[in-house]
Amino acid sequence: MGTPGLPVVIDTDPGIDDAIALMLALSGPELDVRAVTTVGGNAGLERTTENALRLLHLLGRDDVPVGAGADQPLVRRDSLPAESIHGTDGLGGIRLDPAPRGADRRTAVELVRDVVEASAEPVTLIALGPLTNVAALLAASPGVAARLGGIVMMGGGARVLGNMTPTAEFNVWYDPEAASRVLASGVPVTMVGLDVTRRARTVPADWAALHGGGPVARAVLGMVEFYTGFYRATSGTDAIAQHDALAVASVMRPGLLTTRRLHVDVECAGSLTRGMTVVDLDGVGAGDARTEVALDVDDRAFAELLVERVVGLDARTRAGAG
Ligand code: BDR
Ligand code: CA
């Protein structure tokens, strides 16, 4: 028996890059995925929950409980799903077999609480969508939050950069109040932001080995094709950013990211800048420097890990390794 993987819960809104991130998380021994919780973001909650269940089924992991969380941001209810990026179904129109089960009877918050309380080791929460569920957990169960090994979030950016507005990244833009509460909570947070995840890219040729492959390969190729179409149309490039997979990879491979402990605030009021992460890179403000902010990535090592693992998934699933 090898060393047991690090216990994690993945909070997600699949979402094409979420789907690929989930595949990476389940592709090897590094992580012990104890639960998946879902949040509305890239698509509505019903859809992201169904997508999570179907993806786990595709990967032979119907044993991983799925808890549905929040469909709407904490405060303002005017954020819209990112359907132009991920398609109306969240997965670029690929068809996945239905799972033989539904979501857990527990909500996302209840499920995370149970997983953390049952674990002898601290559980790391990897947040790949809007932070609504995470903020709700911190409010409902401060004791549980204190026992977390940490929160690794994909969102925001160290340098001003946005993909929803000129200054706001989608996950923080969708629910800025939630992101603000999580970053101010005192739980150790690593923020893997857009300026770094945009450098964690793959190109269609990286996935050549998937052609002629099994069901996982077909799903990945379908999602990559859809996502590449979006990038081509909006940025004229075939290189797609694997935002969420980088957050997962950073937990699997400490050292992949260069981080610095900095103070991070979220702008919740600005009419032009709502959803912006304000990172005190030069230490000129008065706030505590307590968030590990990603500033750089070994992008080649990341892409090699991601592609090698995803390419191996059909064989792994057939072998029943999950
Ligand atoms: C983030 O927003 C979503 O569209 C992606 O899934 C990722 O989590 C990138 O800004
Ligand atoms: Ca996501």
Question: Briefly, what is this?
Answer:
With 322 residues, the protein is α/β, with parallel strands linked by helices. It is built from 13 helices and twelve strands.
Structural key phrases:
322 residues; Inosine-uridine Nucleoside N-ribohydrolase, Chain A; two-stranded antiparallel sheet; 13 helices; binds beta-D-ribofuranose; binds calcium ion
Question: What would you say this structure looks like, in words?
Answer:
The protein is 38% helix and 17% strand. Helix 1 runs parallel beside helix 11 and helix 5 (132-140) crosses helix 8 (176-183). The longest helix is centred in the last third of the chain and has 21 residues, at 215-235. The two termini are 16 Å apart. Strands 3-2-1-4-5-6-12-9 form an eight-stranded mixed beta sheet, sandwiched between helices. Strands 7-8 form a two-stranded antiparallel sheet. It has 13 helices and twelve strands. With 322 residues, it is of the alpha/beta class. Calcium ion is lined by residues 13, 15, 18, 42, 128-129, 244.
